[in-house]
């Protein structure tokens, strides 16, 4: 069977290449991809050869060649032994996969997908789990104010999920006007430019004293510093953005310690593996939650897609990712 995958072969360069089709091992299914979504932050870091792409330590050298892309959906086409109720023909969404047309994955990372949810929308579910986990860790209460600092794909998903969770008001923050406009379309009540001289004062006025919950998604020291300026006493800040350069300084005494603000590590890997508890849900349970929210009409991810491309267009798409600051939400349609 002919197979193909998207591979990063050098800084800023991606190719679509042929590869072997594997047979599923015990506990695995092989899935024919229908759609995959570009996770712009993580994929840009790997595409550019950023050495700090690990949650443990910096790499010694760039990771090339690299086959990335981890949020996908498709149809089961072969099954190994011990795969439970998965069978050939099942529609599925997957976590921690890659951009390979026919790929094998352990069923721990495979999730049944209802017919009512499109493959394009399902290919975003894994990425949407990241801000969902961050919001849970902040223990957001209905009616609390929330701020999202940075409006890439994770920030926009955070806006959607905060809306579903009952945050009010929701303040979306980004220096790019197009991103602010999209955040308003996603359900933000306000969209602000962090470089406006009265930015923090405006947030305090809107919220009547500061933000209760902030989802920091820039991964930049200045973004965190700006979010801290907006916090109410006893506020909670989820560090969802991957800060790949730690060379910055925060006035922790005045902005964190003295105000009782909580900084919460919110990398998606910092979650329980097998059993959910209050504020700490497993990836599988978060995937199930998102599916329920979509089925009940509380969450619409499909409308957030900006562009759909064939995998044949991957080299051009990733060339843009390497240089564009306002990269759109892109889905690859592997059926093209």
Task: Briefly characterize the structure.
With 336 residues, this protein is α/β, with parallel strands linked by helices. The protein has helices spanning 40-47, 119-122, 125-137, 153-165, 177-185, 199-207, 221-229, 252-257, 283-295, 314-323, and strands spanning 4-10, 13-18, 28-37, 71-79, 91-95, 102-106, 110-112, 146-149, 170-173, 190-192, 211-216, 231-239, 262-265, 307-309, 330-333. Strands 3, 4, 5, 6, 7, 14 and 15 form a seven-stranded mixed β-sheet that branches.
List keywords for this structure.
single chain, 336 residues, alpha/beta, 7-stranded mixed beta sheet, 15 strands
Structural description of this entry:
This protein has 336 residues and is an alpha/beta fold. It has ten helices and 15 strands. It has helices at 40-47, 119-122, 125-137, 153-165, 177-185, 199-207, 221-229, 252-257, 283-295, 314-323, and strands at 4-10, 13-18, 28-37, 71-79, 91-95, 102-106, 110-112, 146-149, 170-173, 190-192, 211-216, 231-239, 262-265, 307-309, 330-333. The strands form three sheets. Strands 3, 4, 5, 6, 7, 14 and 15 form a seven-stranded mixed sheet that branches. A six-stranded parallel sheet has the order 10-9-8-11-12-13, sandwiched between helices. A two-stranded antiparallel ribbon has the order 1-2. Helix 3 (125-137) crosses helix 9. The protein is globular. The relative contact order is 0.16.
């Amino acid at each position: 069977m002919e197979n193909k995958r998207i591979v990063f072969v050098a800084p800023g360069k991606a190719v679509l290449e042929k590869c072997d089709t594997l047979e599923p091992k015990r506990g695995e299914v092989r899935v024919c991809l229908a759609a995959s979504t570009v996770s712009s932050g993580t994929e840009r870091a790997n595409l550019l050869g950023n050495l700090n792409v690990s949650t443990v330590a910096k790499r010694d050298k760039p990771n090339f060649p690299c086959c990335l892309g981890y949020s996908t959906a498709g149809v089961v086409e072969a099954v190994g032994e011990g795969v439970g109720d998965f069978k050939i023909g099942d529609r599925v969404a997957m976590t921690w996969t890659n951009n390979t047309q026919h790929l094998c994955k352990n069923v721990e990372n495979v999730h049944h997908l209802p017919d009512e949810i499109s493959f394009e929308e399902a290919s975003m579910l894994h990425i949407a789990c990241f801000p969902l986990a961050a919001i849970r860790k902040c223990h957001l209460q209905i009616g609390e104010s929330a701020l999202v600092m940075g409006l890439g794909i994770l920030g926009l998903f955070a806006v959607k999920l905060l809306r579903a969770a009952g945050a009010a008001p929701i303040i979306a923050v980004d220096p790019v006007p197009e991103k602010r406009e999209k955040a308003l379309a996603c359900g933000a009540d306000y969209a602000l430019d962090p470089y406006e001289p009265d930015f923090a004062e405006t947030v305090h006025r809107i919220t009547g004293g500061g933000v209760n919950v902030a989802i920091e998604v820039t991964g930049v020291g200045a973004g965190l510093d700006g979010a801290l300026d907006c916090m109410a006493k006893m506020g909670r800040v989820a560090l969802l953005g991957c800060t790949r350069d730690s060379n910055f300084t925060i006035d922790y005494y005045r902005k964190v310690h003295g105000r009782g603000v909580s900084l919460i590590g919110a990398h998606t890997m910092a979650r329980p593996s097998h059993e959910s508890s209050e504020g700490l849900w497993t990836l599988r349970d978060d995937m199930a939650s998102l599916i329920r929210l979509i089925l009940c009409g509380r969450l619409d991810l499909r409308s957030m897609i900006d562009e759909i491309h064939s995998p044949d267009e991957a080299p051009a798409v990733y060339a843009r990712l390497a240089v564009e600051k306002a990269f759109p939400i892109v889905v690859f349609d592997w059926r093209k």
